[in-house]
Specification:
5-stranded parallel sheet, 12 strands, binds fructose -6-phosphate, glutamine amidotransferase, aminotransferase, cytoplasm
Amino acid sequence: EKGGFDHFMLKEIYEQPRSIKDCMRGRIYPEEGKVQLGGIKEFAEKLKNIDRIIIVACGTSWHAGLVGEYLIEEYARIPVEVEYASEFRYRNPIITEKDVVIAISQSGETADTMAAIEMAKERGATIFGICNVAGASIPRLTHAGVYTHAGPEIGVASTKAFTAQVTVLTLMAFYMAQQKGTITTSKLIELLTELDNIPDKIQIALESNDLIKEVAEKIKDSTNCLFLGRGSGFPVALEGALKLKEISYIHAEGYPAAEMKHGPIALIDEEMPVVFIATQNSSYEKVISNIQEVKARKGKVIAIVTQGDTEVKKMADYCIEIPDANEAFLPLIATIPLQLLSYHIAVMRGCNVDQPRNLAKSVTVE
Ligand code: F6R
């Protein structure tokens, strides 16, 4: 059932070109510059007039929410707040009938996310779900929703579910932009044409597997690891750190790269690997200066870079290339090498990657 792979996690990492295609099927029309989301169609009018979106989720799904925030604010120009479901439910948050709450959950059974939905619903908000498991509790609690269609995810650490959640959020951002008129058809044609090619780019990213294994060998005995990124590279860094800690039990932290000098820089010495999302986009130059700061303190730099990069290569100890893409789609590609890196480190350390200690696939108690 592992399809020739050693673990479900690896199989699921390799499924991503296909799972993302499945997620987009019938929803994008690149030639026409159109997005169709049948699941939330009946709210199309309402979307023209909403004041705010609140995203609620836990864990990896919360990281997907942070990517969603960048995309929805950028393209649909609707203010977005991303909340841990567990914190949101126990505050007395301000929610009105003009708010849309998007609950993200792979399993559709997470206790805190369900409680957050119930509270927001009582206060009159419209609730959308982004779930992977059809017919689970969360899809039944929400007013409308969009399934991720990633297929069953067996590995406890979320991989293909995360990229499918990000894909749905990308589609939602474009759909809302289309409804609100904050994007032109020609821009949508351009973006959707590129989105349609993302599965091929993920396939190319997967081809760095052997190189990533070599990097894993070099850092597998570390006790700590930092992951740094800016813009939409920041949630990618958070997700990279979470993956590493949950399956390899190495302590890891994700930070916005610029926050490093406000504290974490004190941790850097020759023992500390620092993984940078250093692709060529609007924050490239800034990330380069952050890399210099780490190198000046003898940290070991592992950089995720755009194919053909020369600048970062001069400084980093190890570079892993990914295909160039519009910044909007960066998280979908940059996440792939980080999943593989955690996987190989965990295997080398003899960990049970598919069933890490203390974790469960669905967290049905708070
Ligand atoms: C991490 C992971 C967890 C889940 C979290 C939410 O790899 O799997 O952090 O993302 O427990 O679960 P769902 O998405 O099922 O609500």
